[in-house]
Every structure is written in C-alpha cells, then in structure tokens.
C-alpha cells in the first residue's frame, strides 16, 4: 500500500515531463523496481527484494531525475530491505547518506530532514549505539514539539522511540516515567480506548514486570488486552507478543 501510495504521488507530481524519453523510461523502471522491492520484502523474499531495490537505486543514479524527492525514494526502500535482512550497518550507511542529501537540499530545519534523522536514530538504536540514538531522539523531540506541538502524533512517536531505548538499556524508572507521560498525552488525544493506549500499557507492563511490581504489570497487560480485543484481529501479532509478556510476568512472579 505504501509503494502504491508513493506511485500515485509521483504520478501526480509529473516528475518526468521535462526529461527525455530515455530518462523517463529509467525513472519509471526505478519506480517499478522500488514497488517490487517493497512487495518482496512483505513476502519475505529478501534476496529478490535486495536485487530489485539495488536496481532501482542504480536506475535513479543513471537517470538523474529532476525531482530530488524521487531521487532518494529507492534508497529508503533499499534501507528497509537491509533492515528486514538484519543488515543494520548497511541500513545505517544508507540513512546517513539520505540525511546528508536532505541537509544539503532542504537544510536542517525541514520535516524531511527530521524524518530521515528519525530513521537514522532507529538504525543506531538497532546497532545498540544508544548514545547516538538517544541524542538524536532528544533533538527530534525538541524540534517536533516546537514545530508540531507536544500532543502531535509525530512528537509522541519520537518520544515513544526514546522511551523504548531507555527500556532496552534497562533504565526502567526513566522509561516508566517517559511512558506514563506518553500514555497521558495519548489519552488526551485519542481517549481511553485507542489502540495506542494498548501499546503504551504493554510497555508499562514490561517495565513493571522488570521492576518486580507484578500486580501493576498485570493490570497494564489486562488493560492492553482489553484494548486489543476491541481493535485488533485475534491473529494479529500483537496478541502473541502480549501473551509472551503475560508468560514472563507469571513466571517471574512465581519465583519471588
């Protein structure tokens, strides 16, 4: 769906109207390979996806499209493919390149630059370079808060990633305070029953389990389950993950 959305957007912008037929053909081929890469990633055919994404990037390099935005789209999908393959060093290198290009084209105070920085921060986090990822998360939280407002989903998303990073580093008290702040903001935006409330409660349940607060953890997990039951199909992976955390909770609580 994302690939098709991009394709429709590209068609509306008419990126190739000023280019030669040969250049135009390469641009459209790059678009098709980019879409194919996304489909293949979704089907877990990662070697084929990698080949398609690499072809798309090469076609863009050869055609030099006049649209800057289109020129970097295939690189995003190449990074996504490397992420699916757990090739995080290669993914990180691509996002560094995209950030540099966005900085040059848009400058540091542009939403496209911030979005690429967010993806770079996530890749650093996956590499367990927490110092760098946390620094980027905090920088982006300030930028998003000033630009979009404290209760904007973009602001809360980057704060969520930052809180998850604290959880990964076992900074449980700090992570709990961050997730409680996010939960309160999400309730203000969406009410008590939106699916994001379930996600917040799941994270808080994990934290309370780690802290040995088993009653509080169970309450959060139950609240999470109640939300998911309203909004998520039973086959959704969220339930499997939640039940796994329930298992950890009951195993840990019996050992104390």
Q: Sheet bearing the most strands, described?
A: none
Order of helices and strands: HHHHHHHHHHHH
The proportion of residues forming helix, as a percent range, comes to over 70%
Mean pLDDT: 89
As a whole number of angstroms, the C-alpha radius of gyration is 21 Å
Count of β-strands: 0
Low-confidence spans: pLDDT under 50, at least 5 residues? 1-19
β content, as a range? under 5%
Shape: globular
State the distance separating the first and last CA atoms: 47 Å
Helix/strand-derived class? mainly alpha
The total count of helices amounts to: 12
Chart the SSEs and their pairings:
Blueprint: H1 2-13, H2 21-42, H3 46-63, H4 68-84, H5 88-106, H6 111-126, H7 130-148, H8 153-168, H9 172-190, H10 195-210, H11 214-231, H12 237-254
Helix pairs in contact: 1-2, 2-3, 2-4, 3-4, 4-5, 5-6, 6-7, 7-8, 8-9, 9-10, 10-11, 10-12, 11-12
């Amino acid at each position: 769906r994302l690939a098709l959305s991009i394709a429709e957007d590209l068609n509306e912008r008419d990126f190739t109207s000023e280019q030669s037929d040969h250049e135009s053909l390469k641009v459209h081929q790059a678009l098709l390979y980019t879409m194919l890469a996304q489909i293949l990633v979704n089907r877990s055919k990662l070697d084929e996806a990698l080949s398609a994404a690499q072809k798309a990037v090469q076609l863009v390099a050869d055609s030099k499209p006049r649209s800057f935005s289109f020129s970097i789209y295939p690189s995003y999908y190449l990074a996504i493919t490397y992420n699916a393959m757990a090739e995080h060093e290669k993914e990180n290198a691509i996002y560094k390149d995209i950030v540099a290009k966005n900085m040059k084209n848009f400058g540091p105070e542009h939403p496209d630059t911030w979005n690429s920085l967010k993806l770079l921060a996530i890749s650093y986090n996956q590499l367990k370079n927490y110092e760098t990822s946390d620094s980027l998360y905090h920088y982006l939280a300030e930028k998003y808060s000033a630009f979009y407002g404290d209760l904007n989903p973009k602001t809360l998303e980057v704060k969520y990633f930052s809180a998850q990073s604290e959880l990964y580093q076992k900074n449980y008290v700090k992570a709990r305070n961050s997730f409680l702040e996010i939960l309160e903001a999400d309730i203000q935006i969406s009410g008590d029953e939106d699916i994001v409330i379930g996600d917040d409660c799941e994270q808080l349940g994990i934290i309370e389990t780690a802290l040995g607060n088993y009653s509080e953890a169970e309450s959060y997990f139950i609240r999470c389950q109640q939300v998911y039951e309203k909004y998520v199909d039973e086959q959704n992976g969220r339930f499997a993950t939640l039940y796994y955390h329930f298992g950890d909770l009951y195993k840990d609580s019996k050992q104390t």
